[in-house]
Automatic annotation (TrEMBL):
It holds the Pfam family LacI. The keyword Transcription applies. It comes from Mesorhizobium denitrificans. Keywords: DNA-binding, Transcription, Transcription regulation. InterPro entries: HTH_LacI, Lambda_DNA-bd_dom_sf, Peripla_BP/Lac1_sug-bd_dom, Peripla_BP_I. This is LacI family transcriptional regulator.
């Protein structure tokens, strides 16, 4: 079925149908739903070239992908991308990845915008005073940041989870259970989610007169091996921490392995809480001791970013609003009262 046939069937003009399919704000919601439902039922798919000519839109969401020997494939990013891709596919958007030298992403951003390759971009893993956000403000292309950047003196559109609140609640729970030697195995300090998580835990301890000491903090890329190394270095100190809060389930795999190698029982000798991005292939309840977590789906975050980008492309969303999702604290068997043994 082509556009003309779809329009005749719905008794609407081709212009109205085209605008409804492409999310123009002047089409009312009832008409938009009617057109979208009919298009799905009859298998109508717009011709990409014709849509671009008619609307001036490429139908593309872009991402500048840092590459190089120092860049690892991050399963958190892959899961986020899956959520973004699910939404994009269902709404006839394509996703364009533009590889960039990790040390010179600005050149690629400028090229992508100048060539009009995409209708909007998203930015991930923001850093304090992130130069990419400053650049996109100057270039004028619609964009959204997954996360937040501190130190910018202007508003920008973002979607984030309450990292600070999540780790504050995790820390408060451990303090309530009598823990005073609490360690943090965090993501890399250059990224603001890690800054927020450290701040949340630090404030939770401070509220009870405790201190998150520098020797109790480890910051690494979030891999299983890094989790293992960080946990070993913490658990081989004396006195060792009685609880660890970890920034990823993947790192927590390494923490559990390190505790097992050292003969440390969870939660008898050490409590453990980790952040759960809700991976379908790694579930906290399936750990040898069901793992207490702060939980927020990174896949749903990807879908939400795509939804907001589509709205910004069509003009349904304007301004530079941010949204922060609350994070659930799920208590399972990996937390208990602080041990009383002298060497714990």
């Amino acid at each position: 079925m082509n556009l003309k046939q779809l329009s005749q069937m719905l008794e609407l003009s081709q212009t109205t149908v085209s605008r409804a399919l492409n999310g123009y704000p002047e089409v009312n919601e009832e008409t938009r739903r009617r057109v979208m439902d009919a298009a799905r039922r009859h298998g109508y798919r717009p011709n990409p070239s014709a849509r671009r000519l008619a609307t001036g839109k490429a139908g593309m969401i872009g991402y500048v992908l840092p590459t190089g020997s120092a860049v690892d494939i991050d399963p958190h990013f892959v899961e986020f991308l899956s959520g973004l891709g699910d939404y994009a596919r269902a709404h006839d958007f394509d996703l364009v990845l533009s590889p960039a030298d990790a040390q010179d992403e600005e050149t690629t951003y400028r090229r992508v915008v100048a060539n009009k390759q995409v209708d909007a971009l998203y930015v991930s893993s923001p850093k304090p005073a992130d130069k990419r956000i400053k650049l996109l403000e100057q270039l004028g292309l619609p964009y959204i940041v997954h996360g937040r950047s501190e130190g910018l003196h202007f508003d920008y559109p973002f979607m984030d989870i309450d990292n600070e609140g999540a780790f504050h609640e995790a820390g408060r729970l451990l303090v309530q259970l009598g823990h005073s030697r609490i360690a943090l195995i965090n993501g890399q300090r250059a990224e603001t989610f890690a800054v927020f998580r450290e701040r949340g835990l630090r404030n939770a301890l401070a509220a009870s007169g405790l201190v998150l000491a520098t020797p109790m903090i480890r910051s690494f890329a979030m891999t299983e091996e890094n989790g293992y190394r960080a946990a070993r270095s913490l658990l081989e100190t004396s006195p060792r921490p009685t609880a660890i809060i970890c920034s990823s389930l993947i790192m927590a795999l390494g923490v559990v392995r390190a505790a097992r190698d050292l003969g440390i029982e969870i939660p008898k000798d050490m409590s453990l809480i980790a952040h759960d991005d809700v991976f379908p292939w790694l579930k906290p309840e399936n750990f040898s001791v069901p793992l207490a977590t702060t939980r927020s789906s990174i896949r749903l975050a990807g879908a939400r970013i795509a939804e907001r980008l589509a709205a910004r492309i069509s003009g349904l969303e304007e301004g530079k609003s941010g949204e922060v999702w609350p994070v659930d604290l799920v208590v399972r068997g990996s937390v208990a009262g602080a041990p009383t043994r002298a060497n714990s």
